[in-house]
Amino acid sequence: MKGFDFDFLRVSLTDVVDIIFVALLIYYIYNLIKNTLAVNLLLGMLIILIIWFAVEQLNMRLLSTIINKFMSVGIIALIVIFQPEIRRFLLLIGKNTFLQQNKAWWGYLFGSKNIERDNLVRIKPIIDACKSMKKSRTGALIVFVKFYDDQLFANSCEVIDSRISKRLLESIFQKYSPLHDGAVVIAENKIKSASCILPLTDNDKLPPQFGLRHRAGIGVSETTDAVAVIISEETGEIAYAKQGRVRMNVSFGELEKLLNKDF
């Protein structure tokens, strides 16, 4: 009597590592596209693949040729369609590297620990301005970027390039200020520009009470490594947008911790 051959079940250490990396890749991709239009795009592509397989099996030559032509440019189409998600994926990898996650230790070793200590001092005027605007229910959108992209921001903004100031932030978002519409962009420890027109999110699952200010804050966090602080004009509530997701009803203690981590 012949026994069963279980050679195919043999798993090496390399196979285990391979499976772990694939699982991590799927996890990161899922986190990036969750609650975005990319899910619908992937579903549409999956339907096309199923149709293509069925057409090939049924030997439908004309339709098969058309779909094959479409599939031949599939990789280029993927890059074009998922450009924001690919950008965010690469940023996510860069932010989670060993050197990035341990930059505080490297800063301490190379004498730049003072930058970390001074971070709360830099954040204080922003927190104070948010407190004042929350109390007066002044709508505001403040975007924090690590690297200021002149092409993305300067073309649609008024350049300010000033030090961060509570009174300046309040003046910009004051109801009758000519700069109150749009966003303030903060980078390099300066208020770089104001009245910025930002891309709106395409997410159609957001609550209906979200206006243009919330959608713009979420949109810029989807396509760049920026984070956004949004103050509602109707309720005075503070929201915090990062990587396409928004945290509502943020307290000032939470806001300080979030900015100290991301800014």
Automatic annotation (TrEMBL):
Protein name: Diadenylate cyclase
The keyword Phosphoprotein is annotated on this UniProt entry: no
Source organism per UniProt: Pedobacter gandavensis
Gene3D superfamilies linked to this entry: DNA integrity scanning protein, DisA, N-terminal domain (3.40.1700.10)
PROSITE patterns: DAC
Pfam families with a match to the protein in the record: CdaA_N, DAC
Catalyzed chemical reaction(s): 2 ATP = 3',3'-c-di-AMP + 2 diphosphate
SUPFAM superfamilies, per the entry: YojJ-like
Membrane-crossing segments per the record: 12-30, 37-55, 61-82
Ranges where the DAC domain occurs: 83-252
Self-association state and partner proteins as the record states: Probably a homodimer.
Family: Belongs to the adenylate cyclase family. DacA/CdaA subfamily.
InterPro entries: C-di-AMP_synthase, CdaA, CdaA_N, DisA, DNA_integrity_DisA_N_sf, DNA_integrity_scan_DisA_N
Keywords on record: ATP-binding, Cell membrane, Membrane, Nucleotide-binding, Nucleotidyltransferase, Transferase, Transmembrane, Transmembrane helix
Assigned EC number: 2.7.7.85
Listed NCBIfam families: diadenylate cyclase CdaA
Top-level enzyme category: transferase
Function: Catalyzes the condensation of 2 ATP molecules into cyclic di-AMP (c-di-AMP), a second messenger used to regulate differing processes in different bacteria.
